[in-house]
Design goal:
The complex is a heterodimer. By secondary structure, chain A is α+β, with helices and mostly antiparallel strands. In chain A, about 60% of the residues lie in helices and about 15% in strands. Chain A has helices spanning about 35-50, 60-65, 125-135, 135-140, 155-165, 170-195, 200-245, 245-270, 275-285, 290-335, 345-355, 370-390, 405-415, 420-465, 465-520, 520-565, 600-620, 640-650; strands at about 1-10, 15-20, 25-30, 70-85, 85-100, 100-115, 120-125, 145, 360, 365, 570-575, 585-590, 630, 655-660, 665, 670-675, 685-690, 705-710. A six-stranded antiparallel beta sheet of chain A has the order 2-1-4-5-6-7. The longest helix of chain A is centred in the last third of the chain and has 53 residues, at about 465-520. Chain B is mostly helical. In chain B, about 50% of the residues lie in helices and about 0% in strands. The chains are: A alpha+beta, B mainly alpha.
Chain lengths: ~700, ~170
């Protein structure tokens, strides 16, 4: 089948009628992102699968904007194909109109038209025709959007569907069932015959019961074996994946410990940094740094007050002394002469003069009892009396309080703190230096931390794994190993048991056959033997065909795979049949080892290879090929690889329609143009979908994708 | 022994109300964001009297004797000088002995007549009032300085040694 033409009318960004005319072979549709490629693909999906969303939302915004009251238009996607020399056309469409300012849709239908060689046209059922031109089970392997949809074979179910669709094995199924039925029927007849012989009936029954019990056990063991096999496979797959990562995981673990240690050191260094300088101003009294002059000022003031206080006190005292003396001497002055001050000569001198009986003031002797002696005696008594009078008669004190005493005591206590105040400057410098030292330490550690983290990122990016995965791998390694070992032991044991049981069943069946042969009709026995042989042949053939199909698929896929990745290391695609009869696809290295982490480009080419292999098989099986339609399948390919891929496609039979955004470039005026390199791409047809300029990407109603056939 | 220090320390000095919102309240608002105030002073001074003491020494060293204007409302934070720095919270040292240094500075800087006091010619309250006036004037000077610093650069206090530097720089004043 070849798609000749696709017509899109008023569908999303395709305003009015747009025609895509295709050739057999390679068709390339170029388009920048957002200019209509994907909408083209969606139009096809809508045509083939029907409603993907609300009909109204499919109408071209520009058409809607222009729509006048009571006018109607059509949204349609139509495909015209050539199949077995007949032109066939399927179209899905609906009408829409504006009524009372509201949009109504109606006449939604799928329509088929066939046109024979004579040009006679005939309307047929659209659904039927759609299945005829492009069966849905084939579309599944023929239409893909983006790279991510390509990996449909990761599910074993998809592979089974594929094999059911393409392998000859399926043709054997119905015969296998028929033969199994015939064998049952004939065995029943033989049973009946055997039981007629009363003697052998008991023995026959015993054998049959035993076989049933053995078969039940066998079934149980086989199911356990299946579980064990699947466990073994799973754990080995796990081990395989982990083995590639175990070294990285161990390295990550070491680096993580290093990081932890460094972080602790940083934490420690940071915690030692004390930058609470304001707190230190008070708590450590750094605020006193300039206090010395203030304190000196205080000292001067207190000392001067103290001096003043004493001076005043002494003046006051003298004043009192004079006052008292004046009172005593005034009386004597009246009768005698002005005396010496009462304290002259002193008490001691007076006593000395009396003892020596000499007046040392006038230098004359003054024997005891003489007038001079008596005068001196009298004077001493007066002096003593005046002195005792001072003590007896207290004058009112000058000061009522002594606040200065406390001020002086503060002075003394502060004096001893001066040394500390002088050292504050050094203390502050020391703190700054200490903190700087710790900061440098932190910086040093941070550099080491950075280096360790860079190492970690490098390892993670090399292993293409998340950190958690790697660390889990380390933890799971032992668990997987244990499971794998246990499963292997189980498998050995179960296989042995199954073999034993199968032998027992065969022995019992042989005994039963012997009874049957002795008691039944020879013809029936022969017939059953023939049927059993046929059953074995069919079973083996089905298995062989199945394997053959896989071999062919594998061979074709690998050929295409190496062609896409010419000159590059690819590995080998392997279709593996496991013990549970499930097929898995693996990418292996030349030595049979699992290719651990293929990149997206390799994965994409792997899937594309398988899909093209399927396409080839389809052609061989059905004697007909179907188009392959891919929207942006090669985003991860570079332009060179894309070009190689296209050249390869050009050499393969069948129709291909590829939508890509490569080979377009914006010139200095922001206008889109096709690159020169595109000329080198061999193709049968090239179309460029491009938004009509100017447009406003914020306003959908200005959008119209043009279809330019290059 | 008559003790002027004890009488003085039993008092609460005041400050100009205008600094309550701009400087003092900022530490009361600790934990909330108030972009209009010098928000992070609270990070440096955990109690109001700490800022008061700081402003006093700042004013003293920079010789910023600025009496609180007569028309200004004077407020306080109900915490007697004798308790300043007494109660050491977790991770803090007591600095109550700074009280005595402040007293020493006030005696040095205030023109008081101790002789008259001792002669009982004037009352102790008068002297203490004079000391408090000096204290409030230097603190006011320090607060004005901080306020202006904040207006010049509202983020000046974000470096950890901002307040230490202001004290160190005061040496040349």
């Amino acid at each position: 089948m070849i798609i000749k033409k696709i017509v899109i009318e008023n569908f999303l960004c395709y305003y009015d009628i747009k025609e895509f005319v295709f050739a057999d072979g390679l068709n390339i549709i170029l388009g920048e992102n957002g200019e209509g490629k994907t909408k083209f693909y969606e139009a096809l999906v809508w045509l083939f699968n029907g409603n993907i969303r609300d009909l109204k939302s499919l109408i071209s915004a520009r058409k809607l904007n222009e729509l006048e009251e009571s006018t109607s238009f059509r949204v349609e996607v139509k495909v015209q194909v050539e199949q077995h020399e007949t032109i066939k056309q399927v179209s899905r469409f609906f009408q829409f109109e504006k009524k009372d300012n509201d949009i109504h849709t109606y006449n939604y239908s799928l329509e088929g038209i066939k046109e024979n060689a004579k040009g006679e046209r005939e309307m047929v059922d659209g659904n039927g025709l759609l299945k005829e031109i492009f069966p849905s089970e084939l579309r599944k392997y023929s239409m893909f959007k983006g790279e991510s949809e390509l990996n449909i074979f990761n599910e074993t179910k998809s592979l089974k569907n594929l094999i059911d669709t393409f392998s000859f094995a399926k043709y054997y199924n119905k015969y296998t069932e028929l033969i199994s039925y015939s064998e049952k029927r004939i065995s029943r007849d033989i049973d009946k015959e055997s039981r007629r012989n009363k003697k052998q009936e008991t023995e026959h029954q015993r054998l049959k019961t035993e076989i049933i019990i053995y078969e039940q056990d066998l079934k149980r063991y086989k199911s356990s074996l299946q579980i064990a096999n699947s466990e073994k496979e799973k754990s080995e797959k796990g081990l395989n994946e982990i083995e590639n990562n175990i070294e990285n995981a161990e390295e990550i673990k070491i680096i993580n410990n290093q990081i932890k240690e460094i972080e602790a050191k940083i934490q420690r260094a940071k915690s030692r940094i004390d930058e609470n300088y304001t707190k230190a101003l008070l708590d450590e009294k750094w605020i006193l740094i300039h206090f010395e002059p203030v304190f000196k000022e205080y000292n001067i003031k207190v000392n001067s007050l103290s001096r003043k206080r004493r001076k005043l006190q002494s003046e006051y005292d003298r004043e009192i002394g004079k006052r008292q003396q004046r009172q005593e001497t005034v009386a004597e002055f009246v009768k005698e002469f002005v005396p010496l001050p009462i304290e002259t000569p002193s008490k001691e001198l007076m006593q000395e003069m009396l003892d020596e009986e000499v007046c040392k003031v006038c230098g004359r002797e003054a024997p005891k009892g003489s007038e001079a002696y008596n005068y001196m005696m009298q004077k001493l008594e007066k002096l003593l009396k005046s002195l005792s009078k001072d003590e007896e008669e207290k004058e009112e004190p000058l000061y009522k309080h002594d606040y200065l005493k406390r001020l002086r005591s503060i002075q003394h206590s502060q004096e001893s703190n001066l040394d500390f105040i002088k050292r504050i400057n050094d203390l502050i410098s020391e703190r700054y230096e200490f903190n700087e030292g710790r900061k440098k330490e932190v910086k040093r550690y941070e550099k080491r931390l950075e280096a360790s983290e860079a190492d970690k990122i490098r390892i993670l990016s090399e292993s293409n794994q998340s950190e958690n995965n790697l660390l889990n791998a380390l933890n799971n390694f032992r668990a997987f190993g244990k499971t794998s070992k246990e499963a292997t032991e189980n498998i050995t044991e179960l296989t042995f048991k199954i073999k034993g049981l199968e032998e027992k069943i065969n022995t019992k069946k042989a005994e039963l056959d012997k009874i049957d042969r002795e008691s039944s009709n020879k013809y029936l026995i022969k017939t059953r033997e023939v049927i059993r042989d046929i059953a074995t042949i069919f079973k083996d053939t089905e298995k062989r065909k199945f394997n053959e199909f896989l071999d062919i698929l594998e061979e074709k896929s690998n050929r295409i795979f190496s062609e896409i990745n010419v000159d590059a290391f690819t590995g080998i695609i392997k279709f593996k049949l496991n013990a549970n009869k499930e097929v898995r696809i693996e990418l292996q290295e030349a030595n049979g080892q699992l290719f651990a982490r293929p990149n997206q480009s390799l994965l994409t080419s792997k899937y594309l290879s398988i899909l093209f292999a399927i396409s080839e098989l389809t052609k061989e099986n059905n004697d007909e090929s179907f188009p392959m339609i891919f929207d942006a399948p090669t985003s991860s390919f570079g332009e060179t690889k894309t070009a190689q891929f296209f050249n390869l496609l050009n050499n393969t039979p069948g129709q291909k329609i590829l939508l890509i955004k490569d080979f377009l470039v914006k010139d200095s005026a922001n206008n889109l143009a096709i690159k020169e390199e595109f000329k080198k791409i061999r193709r049968d047809k090239a179309i460029w979908v491009k938004l009509e300029r100017p447009f406003d990407e914020q306003k959908l109603h200005t959008i119209n994708s043009q279809v330019i056939h290059l | 022994m008559e003790n002027l220090f004890r009488v003085w320390a039993s008092r609460i000095p005041k400050y100009d109300e205008k600094f309550r919102d701009t400087l003092f309240k900022s530490r009361a608002n600790k934990g909330t964001r108030d972009e209009d105030s010098v928000e992070s002073l609270g990070k440096h001074f955990s109690r109001n009297y700490e800022l008061y003491m700081y402003a006093f020494f700042l004013g003293l060293y920079r010789d910023l004797y600025v009496e609180i204007p007569k028309e200004a409302t004077k407020v306080d934070f109900s915490h007697h000088i004798q308790y300043w720095g007494n109660k050491s919270s977790r991770g803090r040292e007591s600095f109550s002995d700074l009280q005595e240094y402040m007293f020493v500075a006030l005696i040095a800087k205030t023109d008081i007549d101790i002789i008259a006091l001792e002669k009982d010619e004037i009352k102790v309250e008068k002297i203490v009032r004079q000391l408090l006036d000096t204290m409030e004037a230097y603190t006011n000077g320090g607060l004005i300085f901080l306020q202006e610093k904040g207006e010049e650069n509202r983020h000046y206090h974000l470096v950890p040694d901002a307040f230490l530097k202001l004290i160190l720089e005061a040496e040349s004043k």
